[in-house]
Amino acid sequence: MTESLKVFGNIPSVRELLERHRRAGESIGLVPTMGNLHAGHVSLLEAARRQSDVLVASIFINPMQFGPSEDLSSYPRTFDADCEVLQASGCNYLFAPQVEDIYPLGMAGQTVVSLPHISALHCGKSRPAHFDGVCTVVCKLFNIVQPDRAWFGLKDYQQFHIISRMVDDLNIPVSLIGMPIIREDSGLAMSSRNGYLSAAEKHRATALYQSLQSAAASLARGQEFRLVERLAAEQLQDAGMKPDYFTVCDRNTLLPAQGQETRLVILAAAWISNTRLIDNLPLDL
Ligand code: PAF
């Protein structure tokens, strides 16, 4: 019989409990989330289950990574359904702290983990403090749970790149695993924010992945990078989406590729009504 999921909010209790597992020589895997779990999260949990003796998930809607005009208050909160998903995925422990547990003195005076330059590009242009909030909370989660390995979805490609840099720069002893994007049959990348869309908007939003695929085909034919980006932005506009950015990047640095690079990733974000969606497509030329 599968053991039932144990839920913790308190930092000292989760630490003490995981320390016992660590002393018993068991490996600890962490899947950090903001809840509203979907098939993308399940793929992380399944991979983590296979490679960890003890599987911990966290659910924390981190206020620090939301801008003042963003969707913090409306972000979907589906705790009971999430617990069922975690239980079915064989997760042992859920760490689900309150904001006061993570930021006991408030966020204003909080030490911030900030990776310069790259955090200001792409998503960072329209979400200026977003990656500081992500790095700060993920660093805290790593310090609290002290996992051997942690799994993240590659839909948030820039996030994974930045967290990997943070782990290297701060010598945090954790191995990171990035898992491929899980898509709906339409090609739309799974995201909690898809829940904001009407059926018609969801249909129109498939243009984002289609624009990435067209761009990848054009790049493979040798079309110039900046021209490919302009045509993709037009394709998104024609489909009723408002492009935020669409950039052919060097996969190692995430800087805009200049033309000689062969290991690429196309990063894109676009608005449909009030919802901002992101997607990406890695490709080798
Ligand atoms: O990708 C997410 O769900 C969040 O950004 C993360 C990594 C859980 C940090 O809050």
What's the CATH topology label of the largest domain? Rossmann fold
Rg on CA atoms, Å: 19 Å
Q: Main β-sheet: number of strands, strand sense, barrel status?
A: 6 strands, parallel
The fourth-level CATH homologous superfamily of the largest domain is HUPs
Strand-residue fraction? Answer: 15-25%
| End-to-end CA span | 49 Å
Bound ions, cofactors and other small molecules, one mention each: pantoate
CATH architecture of the largest domain: 3-Layer(aba) Sandwich
Brief write-up:
This protein is an alpha/beta fold. The chain contains nine helices and nine strands. The structure holds pantoate.
Descriptive overview:
The chain starts with 5 loop residues before the first strand and ends with a strand. The protein has 2 domains: 6-179, Rossmann fold; 192-280, Pantoate-beta-alanine ligase, C-terminal domain (Pantoate--beta-alanine Ligase, Chain: A,domain 2, 2-Layer Sandwich), CATH 3.30.1300. It has a 6-stranded parallel sheet with strand order 1-4-3-2-5-6, with helices on both faces. Strands 7-8-9 form a 3-stranded antiparallel sheet, covered by helices on one side. The protein has helices at residues 11-23, 39-51, 79-88, 99-102, 123-126, 130-145, 157-169, 199-220, 225-238; strands at residues 6-8, 28-33, 54-59, 93-95, 149-153, 175-179, 242-250, 263-272, 275-284. Helices cover 38% and strands 20% of the residues. Helix 6 crosses helix 7 (157-169) and helix 8 (199-220) runs antiparallel to helix 9 (225-238). The mean pLDDT is 97. With 285 residues, it is α/β, with parallel strands linked by helices. The protein is built from 9 helices and 9 strands. Pantoate binds at residues 32-34, 62, 65, 134, 137-138, 156, 159.
